[in-house]
Amino acid sequence: MILYKYWSEVKIVKDKMRKRGLELLKNLRNDPKKKVELESKILSQLFETRIWQGTEVIAITMSLPFEFNTKPIIEEAWKTGKKCYVPKVLANNQMTFIQITPDTRYEKGVFGIKEPIGDSISSFSKTALMIVPGLIFNREGYRIGQGGGYYDRYLSNYKGITASLVFPQQLSDDWTPEKFDQPVDYIITTEKVIEV
Fold this sequence. Notes:
Layout: H1 2-29, H2 32-48, H3 50-53, E1 57-59, H4 71-79, E2 83-89, E3 95-100, E4 106-108, E5 114-116, E6 129-131, E7 136-137, E8 143-144, H5 150-155, E9 161-165, E10 186-188, E11 193-195
Parallel strand pairs: 1-2, 1-6, 6-9, 9-10
Antiparallel strand pairs: 2-3, 4-5, 7-8, 10-11
Pfam families: 5-FTHF_cyc-lig
Protein name: 5-formyltetrahydrofolate cyclo-ligase
EC number: 6.3.3.2
């Protein structure tokens, strides 16, 4: 009973943090100049890392307007000869990844996000780099996402490298990860790359 109460409280805190993270991102969207400035600093950090330079495969989301803009990352990947994969949500609450090219066709997915039409990849190599989205992050690599658990389920069997691109406002240690939460390997901020 005590353990149930503890995890119930953890869930309540995470729900509050999730709401706070959404508000932070939406407020940042209202200042496009500041958002682009922060994104540019984080992208500079990302593109200089050995994990970016040492991979030929990038897995990344197609961002919504209030999220970190992933379009420049996809374009840089293509420009440097890397393969790009984006997620597609399946009917069984699972997620898969499909390769995209400049000629890929898309359809609206379950959450209104455009998803590619094509064949999914069965598994990624150990050098693949997955850019994992989120709303709030702690310095140990744990994240609070939108609440569907898609990435945590996928990452439980993923063997490659993971990183998240984090605005300074999104960093917080005021919450406790749950047992099913999957940490990322790197947190990339405007100032530094944190290896966890």
